[in-house]
């Protein structure tokens, strides 16, 4: 499988495992798991050629570890980024002192006023690395990186979680914790 095909399939998996399983009539359980066999069968019947080897290659080599198999390899789910209501069972965790959020420059005025909102997703996503945050923000145009005083948020009782692929998650970041420079 070349990298172009892997990317195309990975994007399709993000769609059906995070947002629209109904597109291929796939069932996810409450924790967001799909049965591997069913996923493969339904992808194939929707013109996405997939087998266990290809799926394993995508799960193992995905640049952001977007997907994970259950320990028995019978099930698969997305590690984060859902708009569907699923319970990933994440445990709260103390964040590093600072975390970063990349966003398009055009969003800054609104973020200054309203803070960071989770939008369609379950949580606001924060990165531990500025370069990762810049990449995330650049998906929407000319971007900038905001520094979030997560230590203070945590001390003020706001909760943090970390997805299995290392993304930091929180419900909302009020403007007072954001350094706009
Ligand atoms: C912005 C990708 C105006 C926010 C990435 C972002 C990440 C506001 C956009 C994951 C705002 C939401 C999530 C406000 C927030 N006013 N704009 N008050 N508050 N925003 O895609 O964080 O590749 O839902 O800055 O790597 O960009 O899919 O969130 O620009 O981890 O695995 O509203 O998605 O992961 O956009 O990205 P998103 P995000 P994957």
UniProtKB/TrEMBL annotation:
<dbReference type="InterPro" id="IPR042080">
    <property type="entry name" value="RNA_2'-PTrans_N"/>
</dbReference>
<dbReference type="InterPro" id="IPR022928">
    <property type="entry name" value="RNA_2'-PTrans_KptA"/>
</dbReference>
<dbReference type="Pfam" id="PF01885">
    <property type="entry name" value="PTS_2-RNA"/>
</dbReference>
<keyword id="KW-0808">Transferase</keyword>
<dbReference type="InterPro" id="IPR002745">
    <property type="entry name" value="Ptrans_KptA/Tpt1"/>
</dbReference>
<dbReference type="GO" id="GO:0000215">
    <property type="term" value="F:tRNA 2'-phosphotransferase activity"/>
</dbReference>
<dbReference type="GO" id="GO:0006388">
    <property type="term" value="P:tRNA splicing, via endonucleolytic cleavage and ligation"/>
</dbReference>
<protein>
    <recommendedName>
        <fullName>Probable RNA 2'-phosphotransferase</fullName>
        <ecNumber>2.7.1.-</ecNumber>
    </recommendedName>
</protein>
<dbReference type="GO" id="GO:0003950">
    <property type="term" value="F:NAD+ poly-ADP-ribosyltransferase activity"/>
</dbReference>
<comment type="similarity">
    <text>Belongs to the KptA/TPT1 family.</text>
</comment>
<dbReference type="InterPro" id="IPR042081">
    <property type="entry name" value="RNA_2'-PTrans_C"/>
</dbReference>
<comment type="function">
    <text>Removes the 2'-phosphate from RNA via an intermediate in which the phosphate is ADP-ribosylated by NAD followed by a presumed transesterification to release the RNA and generate ADP-ribose 1''-2''-cyclic phosphate (APPR&gt;P). May function as an ADP-ribosylase.</text>
</comment>
<keyword id="KW-0520">NAD</keyword>
């Amino acid at each position: 499988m070349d990298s172009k095909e892997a990317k195309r399939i990975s994007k399709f998996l993000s769609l059906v495992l995070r947002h629209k399983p109904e597109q291929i009539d796939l069932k996810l359980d409450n924790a967001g798991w799909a049965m591997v066999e069913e996923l493969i069968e339904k992808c194939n019947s929707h013109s996405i050629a997939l087998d266990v080897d290809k799926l394993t290659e995508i799960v193992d080599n995905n640049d952001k570890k977007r997907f994970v198999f259950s320990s028995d390899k019978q099930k698969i789910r997305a590690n984060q980024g859902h708009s569907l209501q699923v319970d990933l069972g994440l445990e709260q965790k103390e964040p590093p002192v600072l975390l970063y959020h990349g966003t398009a420059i055009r969003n800054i005025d609104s973020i200054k006023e309203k803070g960071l909102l989770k939008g369609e997703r379950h949580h606001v996503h924060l990165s531990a690395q500025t370069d990762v945050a810049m990449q995330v923000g650049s998906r929407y145009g000319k971007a900038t990186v905001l520094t979030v005083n997560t230590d203070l948020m945590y001390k003020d009782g706001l909760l943090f979680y970390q997805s299995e692929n290392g993304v930091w998650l929180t419900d909302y970041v009020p403007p007072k914790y954001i350094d706009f420079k």
